[in-house]
Amino acid sequence: MLITAAKSYVIGATMTVPGVSGGSMAMVLGIYDQIISSVPSLLSKNFKKAFIFLLVAGCSGLLGALSASPLLKYLLQNFYTVVMYFFLGAIIGSIPMIVRKSRITKANWPKVFFAIPGIILVVLISFIPEGVVRLGEGNFLIQIVAGIGVSIGFVLPGISFSYLLVVLGIYESLITYLSALDFLPLIPLCIGLCIGILVLSGFLKKAMESWPSITFPLIMGFVLGSLPQVFPGVPSGMDMVFSVLSFIVGALSIWATSGELQYVGKGIAKKA
């Protein structure tokens, strides 16, 4: 549970970074599958185990978002390019792990092209017109649908939750209501959010168990589709050096925490 808490803390902290998806970081850190499987398990005989896991993950993520956001804000304001290259390295460094989980072999390698729809979906989301929903006003049903839509940012890698809030035009009003501890106008959004998370998690759990060679390439597409949002441009001068080093550290950190370095080491040992 300590490892889960630590990884969830990192996920919560990085969700405050513009363009960085919490789902992507969960995939990068190797606990995405467990989170997705635990949500629908709340409605099964494994309720206690799933509840404890999600409670630890949720509280740690919230703590990460609250405690680490000032530090991340400072780093982004002063070392934006270097920090974003670290996230680039982390995201790209997770791809070998996703490929391994997809169980792609020489016989079914064309299934890797299922990544393309994932990339396209993430790109299309950027074209959603802003301000289509108003919290606390208008149609109750539309706000529930908006909650279901926002749940995509919670469940699917590569899609930023905060970005979806901005696109739908409800980010500022959400922050205003939360700051004033006025939760009543948020009820329709929360209903939709819960429905979306339960339905999407249940579907993804089934998909990852039954069709991994299709589901994981699709997830890889979501992750790859998020790269343009994270890419800060090409640095120059000493920023180039620090950015490259940051990229390498990000990739190696993910390889170490996800067990990918150990997996590669075993592969080399077998060949030897």
Question: What this model shows, in words?
Answer:
The chain has 272 residues and is mainly alpha-helical. It contains 14 helices and no strands. α6 (115-125) packs parallel to α11. The longest helix is centred in the first third of the chain and has 47 residues, at 47-93. The chain is globular. The two termini are 36 Å apart. The model is unreliable at 261-272 (pLDDT under 50).
List its salient traits.
272 residues; mainly alpha
SS field, number of helical segments? 14
Shape summary: globular
- The radius of gyration computed from the alpha-carbon positions, rounded to a whole number of angstroms, is 19 Å
Order of helices and strands: HHHHHHHHHHHHHH
- Unreliable spans: 261-272
Query: Helix amount, in percent?
Result: over 70%
Please state the average pLDDT score: 78
